[in-house]
TrEMBL record:
Keywords attached to this entry: 4Fe-4S, Iron, Iron-sulfur, Metal-binding, S-adenosyl-L-methionine
InterPro entries for the chain: Aldolase_TIM (IPR013785), Elp3/MiaA/NifB-like_rSAM (IPR006638), PqqE-like (IPR017200), Radical_SAM_PqqE_MftC-like (IPR050377), rSAM (IPR007197), rSAM_sf (IPR058240)
PANTHER family (alphabetical): RADICAL SAM DOMAIN PROTEIN, TUNGSTEN-CONTAINING ALDEHYDE FERREDOXIN OXIDOREDUCTASE COFACTOR MODIFYING PROTEIN
Cofactor (UniProt): [4Fe-4S] cluster
A Gene Ontology molecular function term of the record: 4 iron, 4 sulfur cluster binding
Domain annotation Radical SAM core: ranges: 8-219
Name of the protein described by the UniProt record: Radical SAM protein
Any matching Pfam family: Radical_SAM
Amino acid sequence: MFGEMDFEERPLVLIWELTQACELACKHCRADAQQRRHPDELTTAEGKALLDEAREFGEGQLVVLSGGDPLARDDVAELVDYGTDRGLRMTLTPSGTHSLTRERLAELDEAGLRRMALSIDGGSEAAHDRFRGESGSFAATMDAAETARELDIPLQVNTTVCAETVEQLPAIRELVADLGAVLWSVFFLVPVGRGRVLTPVDPDRAERVMEWLHEVSDEAPFGVKTTEAPHYRRVGLQNGEDDEGVRRRTGVRAGKGFAFVSHTGEVYPSGFLPESAGNVREESVVDVYRDSTLFRRLRDDDALTGKCGACEFRGVCGGSRSRAYATTGDPLAADPLCTYEPDGFEGSIPDQHPAD
């Protein structure tokens, strides 16, 4: 399915940020989450209309309900049920809070939830809770993971890679296996929201982490993918991974196979690239994805500039457009996390600090 999907016509992943409300104060939070819900959030009726539009992308469209903490809203199960009835694959990324009760997870399971993603950013309770800014977050996450296993809800684990967490990765890898997760999604920090105060890993360290992740992928009982680090695919090709295997994951990045709807309906190429191309209250998310100038430019590999534009791997990678935007203000500029130097390229490379 992945390799056959036309990203000009539909995204692999459509994320809807139900709310920015959350009990936690995570250091890396893209949303800069707040304690209270925003009064202008999409309503239940507007959300159902969005899901109707998402169905126009095609049967089986993947929809991720995110936040903040999506469980801060009481209509989540209703929305999952509605999307499921329309042939969408509905998934959820709740926060590790007390909202993750067995009752609510059972309700979501009954509604047709296809997968739940939980975040683990430390290999121990102390490390995770320190990063998440809330005592008890690790315990709530472990309890929810066990409940998901009992309910037979497939589990994905999300992990942030930055200077504070990188040494924890081997221990987190063991937790991912112990929890019976089907996928480990490893997110390389983009300096947006609260994440601006964190220190990214340097490019050389990132390269070594990606090489290690390929080794994990070969050995682990779960799948591995990266978020905002598409050069993971380039690293795989250069280290002898089967070309067909890499190309099955080719090209997904902000605006190309990926779209994000904010809690107030703004349509972004990614939650980490907060430049709006339209609002679902005014136009269809399908039309914004397919026809807006911003999304079309981001899908054009030949529009990339700097060393990403000169790189022979741009078709399978293309760099993080979100990180380029956060560090230079230009979503088509080079990704500063990548170490690879295309033959003959002599231009400058941006650093990883956000643009003013």
